[in-house]
Amino acid sequence: MSMVYRKAQNADLQCLKALWLEVFDEKAEAVDLFFKRNLSYLHSYIAVCDGKPVAAVHLLDGTVNGKKAHYLCGAATLPEYHGRGIMSRLIEYALDDAKSRGDVYSLLYPADRALYAFYSGLGYEPRCKASARSFSRKELEACVFYGVITEEKPDFETLQSQCYKNNFLLQNNTFADFAIEYYKLYGTGVVFSRSCLAFYEESYGTAQVFYCVYKDFKELKTLLLKESGADEFVFYGKIGSPGFTGGASENAGMVRLLDNSETLPQNIYIGITLS
Length: 275
Hints:
Elements: E1 3-7, H1 13-23, H2 28-38, E2 42-49, E3 52-64, E4 67-77, H3 86-100, E5 105-108, H4 115-120, E6 129-136, H5 137-141, H6 156-164, E7 169-170, H7 173-185, E8 189-193, E9 196-203, E10 206-214, H8 217-227, E11 232-237, E12 248-251, E13 254-257
Parallel strand pairs: 4-5, 10-11
Antiparallel strand pairs: 1-2, 2-3, 3-4, 3-7, 5-13, 6-11, 6-12, 8-9, 9-10
């Protein structure tokens, strides 16, 4: 058996899409969108066994506290090749390449709780956290925004810095545009204005706002009240962000330090994920 680990090339694009679709329960339009939108800052890696692509992983460029970083996603191995250590070796290959480009941090969000143990074995630590707070509809209605709301896409990069301050994965405007289109394909609620952006899923009278970034929390609440008829709203966000003080914290991803001359912050917030 001949196994080759390498960086993917343009000629591998259709193979990468096919592999993603075979492993994950995704819509073809969503996978096409991922590669179309993100190719300018995407690094893909592939494992080839006897000429057949059997595993892939992708790194999306970002920064943490001004240091180069990436978000690792789409780690996929064909089922018949599980248990051979292929993904572990492919990730190490990808991280070596990322380190050579100057990346300091590697961040990811395991697809399920059981994978935390797998990634711990690769040197990742569960230092990525999120905070959760619940509000009744009446509580939100008591503190709405009375100014003018301009419903246009925000400058996502600037908005993250204003809201989160530090210890978060800074993702770019292109990724925000992709995320809006991606989640809309799956029927996820999306609200935004010049000063905020949020994604939410509504079920049994509760809106789970699984990602939000904002300049004014009141403006975000006002938009959600306008678009959702939920009786309860559960917000997930960065620990210490305005509106999240006192919220319960939970694991929300993992991080690995690639440069030993740096230190690993506590409570890093990943933000938008594809899980």
